[in-house]
Amino acid sequence: MRTYLVTGGAGFIGSNYIHYMFRKYDNEIRIINVDVLTYAGNLENLKDIENRENYTFVRADITDKEAIAKIFAENEIDRVVHFAAESHVDRSIKNPEVFVKTNVLGTAVMLNCAKAAWELPDGSFKEGKKFLHVSTDEVYGSLEDDGTYFYETTPYAPHSPYSASKASSDMLVKAYIDTYHFPANITNCSNNYGPYQFPEKLIPLIINNALHGKKLPVYGDGKNVRDWLYVDDHAKAIDMVQENGRLGETYNVGGHNEKQNIEIINIIIDTLLEMLPADDPRRALVSKDLITYVEDRKGHDRRYAIAPDKIKAEIGWEPETMFKEGIKKTIAWYFEHEDWMKNVTSGDYQKYYEDMYQNR
Fold it and tell me: Which residues belong to any copy of the NAD(P)-binding domain (predicted)?
C-alpha cells in the first residue's frame, strides 16, 4: 500500500485532494494528513473520512523539524504532496513574516526531512519516492490585457509578500532538484474554487454575503482578471503529475476560465437567483445593489492567465469543469452545508478543535 504524506490537508485544496484520492483509490492507498490547524484548517472538511483505517491525522507545524522527522521515521512515506502554506494576499500585506516562516522555512523542513528519509548512501534516492510542491500562478507576477499567458518558462516576478514567499519556496525545490537530483515536481495553479473554501476568498465570500444581504466588496474597478480552476480538476492534475510527470519538471495547471472579478460577482448573483426556490426568503436579499467598490489592494496584479499546454501534452490532463457548471456545483454545495459555513464564519470550529487538543 502506497503511503502519501499530505501537508495542509485540512485546508481547502488539501481536503478536496484527500477526498479525490480516496474516491479514486479507496483502500489501495494510505494518507497521513499533517496540518497545524490555523484559521484556514478545518477538520470538519474531512469528517466523513476521519475514521478510515487508511487515514491518519497528525497535528503538527511544518516548521517543526522534530515533528516532521518523526513522521518520516515512523512511516515509510512514498509520496509527499505539499499544500501547507499561508495563502491570503491581504493577510500577507499585514504580516509578511508569518508567510516567510510557513512558506519558505516550512518548505525547507519538508525537503530536508524527505531527503534524509529517502536518500541512499551513494546519494541517489529510493525508487518510487516523489515530492510534489503545490504552488501558484501568482509567482509569475501580472499580465497585460493582451492575450498573453504564463508558461513554465515565464520569469518569476512576484508582487505581494505572499507570492514572494511562494516564489522563494519554489526556488528551494528547484535547488534541491538541481543540487541533489531530488525526486520532485512543482505545480503552479490558477485560482481554485469549490467546496470547503474559507469565506475570506472571493467566491465563498460573495456567496455568503449575498445570501445575507451584506455588501459585496470589489477591489478597485473590478476588472482584475483571474483564471478559475475547479478544485476537483486541480486534484486530478496533482495525481496525474505524481503518477506520470517527469521528475524535476514544473507543470502549470490552469482552468481556461478567465474572468474579471466583477464578472464573477454578477455570475454568482445571477446563479443564486436562478437556483433559489421562488419561496425562499433569501431571494429578496440577493441583489446587485449590494456591489460596493472599495480601495484597491496594494500591489494588486491586473491579470493572471495560465497556459496548461505542457501538462496536456506530456500527461494528458486538461480542465473538465467550465465555470458555469463549476459555480453551480459550488453554490449547491454551500446550500447543502449551511452549518459548515456558520461554524466557519463564527469561528466555532477553531474553539472546538482547540479544546479537543488541549484535553488530550
Answer: 5-330
80, HSE (Cβ side, Cα atoms, 13 Å): 31
SS3 content of the chain, % helix, strand, coil (to 5): 50, 20, 35
C-alpha cell at 36: 497545524
pLDDT for 300-349, tens place per residue?
A: 888 999 999 999 999 999 999 999 999 999 999 999 998 898 888 877 65
Cβ proximity of 104 and 169 under 8 Å: yes
304 labelled catalytic: no
Residue 87 confidence (pLDDT): 78
Is 162 one of the catalytic residues? yes
Can you name the residues that pair with 59 across neighbouring β-strands? 35
Helix ranges (DSSP H) in 181-322: 202-211, 231-244, 261-275, 309-315
The answer, yes or no, to whether residue 358 has pLDDT greater than 50, is no
> What pLDDT is stored for residue 350 in this prediction?
56
* Identified catalytic residue from 138, 232, 233, 239: 138
| Catalytic one of 137, 170, 227, 233 | 137
Under 8 Å CB-to-CB from 345, ≥6 apart: which residues? 199, 208
357 is catalytic: no
Q: Rounded to the nearest 5 degrees, what angle is found at the Cα of 332, between the Cα atoms of 328 and 333? A: 120
Average pLDDT, the chain: 93
Catalytic residue (one of 149, 162, 193, 304): 162
Q: Which domains does the chain have, with CATH numbers?
A: 2-358 (3.40.50.720)
Judge whether residue 353 has pLDDT over 50.
no
266: number of Cβ within 10 Å: 17
